[in-house]
Design brief:
The structure holds 2 protein chains of 2 kinds.
Chain A: H1 4-16, E1 35-36, H2 46-51, E2 52-62, E3 66-75, E4 81-91, E5 96-97, E6 105-109, E7 114-120, E8 126-135
Antiparallel strand pairs in A: 1-2, 2-3, 3-7, 4-5, 4-6, 4-8
Chain B: H1 2-20, E1 38-39, H2 46-63, E2 74-84, H3 92-105, E3 108-110, H4 123-135, E4 147-160, E5 163-176, E6 181-194, E7 198-199
Parallel strand pairs in B: 2-3, 2-4
Antiparallel strand pairs in B: 1-7, 4-5, 5-6
Classes of the chains: A mainly beta, B alpha/beta.
């Protein structure tokens, strides 16, 4: 019994280990006026949903006629987590558009970090998007 | 006792089957743009080219410089992309993706009859154009590029104990031919760390 307690403490320390989360400072009253997108979420991995939150989705037009989507994510864990994501683009006729650079990308978020991922549709016909996220 | 042993054996077999699942070492197809490609520390992988091209194209489009050209689509020529890495790579792995993406935007077309040191990508198109103009008794009118795209690939390697780290830097500049000024410059870094290559991210 005398041995078990220190072992448990060490195990707990080992588990929490280098867990560090991010402290942030920002303007109290944001000046930016993003154009938010009303989004629909499909959760197939509840474990991932408990680790990663989608804070907001906003859109803009860049270079005149190209759709840009920015999704702000938050790592709900106090540990660093790696995720992979992919943007799909959909044309006004509902057809999915393919591009040379549209593969899965990786993002690593520090503990409790909030960060935005974004993508620009290279095809001006893109009007809708689909973001896929998976845990590494 | 015998029953317990049998139960343990069955449990072990079931666990082994569950852990290995349907995995096999036989060759199989994987999505080139998917997350199950090989990550290696001694080369630029397909996903690295893809990520670098995507980030650089996004940076170029977001800068808005392409819309300032006097006519759209504007003509771009691919200049020299220096490879200062230890790898033997074909820089088209980067530039072709960028060309396709920019072409899709409808803002840029790439000339294939002009290249650095007179090395053209499509010699037949250049010759056919000259021949056509000659046969028609006209002087060949070559459309000059409005932009050139140049760049450099860099590599940085460090090691700490058995952990190796490699950083590949992809640098690009878009220059307007008329004044030689770099209208847009982009840089993307990809860092990989580990002891050995792995399958999947």
């Amino acid at each position: 019994m005398k041995i078990i307690l220190p072992v448990l403490v060490l195990a707990a320390l080992g588990l929490t280990g280098c867990a560090t989360s991010v402290n942030t400072v920002q303007r109290a009253n944001a000046q930016a006026t993003p154009s938010y997108v009303a989004d629909q979420r499909v959760i197939t991995d509840s474990t991932l949903a408990r680790k990663l939150a989608t804070v907001s989705v906003n859109e803009a037009k860049v270079s005149g006629n190209l759709l840009k989507i920015q999704v702000t994510l938050e790592n709900l864990s106090s540990r660093p987590q790696a995720f992979t994501y992919k943007f799909d683009w959909i044309a006004d006729d509902g057809m999915e558009l393919s591009g040379p650079t549209g593969g899965w990308k990786q993002i690593q978020l520090e503990g409790r970090e909030v960060r935005a991922i974004s993508s620009i549709a290279t095809n001006p016909r893109a009007v809708d998007f689909r973001l896929k996220v998976r845990e590494n | 006792m015998k029953t317990t042993r049998l139960a343990l054996l069955a449990l072990s077999a079931a666990t082994a089957a569950f852990v290995t699942g349907c995995a096999s070492n036989n060759a199989k197809y994987v999505d080139s743009q998917g997350p199950n490609t090989i990550v290696s520390l001694n080369s630029i992988n397909v996903q690295d080219w893809n990520t670098a091209a995507d980030k650089l194209v996004s940076s170029l489009l977001a800068s808005g410089v392409l819309d300032r050209a006097p006519e759209l689509p504007s003509i771009m020529a691919i200049s020299r992309i220096r490879n200062n890495t230890q790898q033997q790579v074909d820089t088209d792995s980067l530039t072709k993706k960028i060309r396709i993406a920019l072409n899709q935007t409808g803002k840029v077309v790439t000339t294939t009859t002009m290249g650095p040191d007179g090395k053209v990508e499509d010699a037949m198109a250049a010759d056919a154009g000259a021949m056509g103009a000659f046969m028609a008794g006209q002087k060949q009118v070559t459309k000059l590029p409005y932009y050139t795209l140049s760049g450099k690939l860099l590599e940085d390697r460090v090691k700490a104990g058995t952990t190796r780290q490699v950083t590949y830097t992809f640098q690009l500049s878009l220059t307007t031919v008329k004044d030689g000024l770099a209208l847009w410059e982009g840089e993307e870094q990809i860092t990989k760390q580990g002891e050995r290559s792995s399958v999947g991210w």
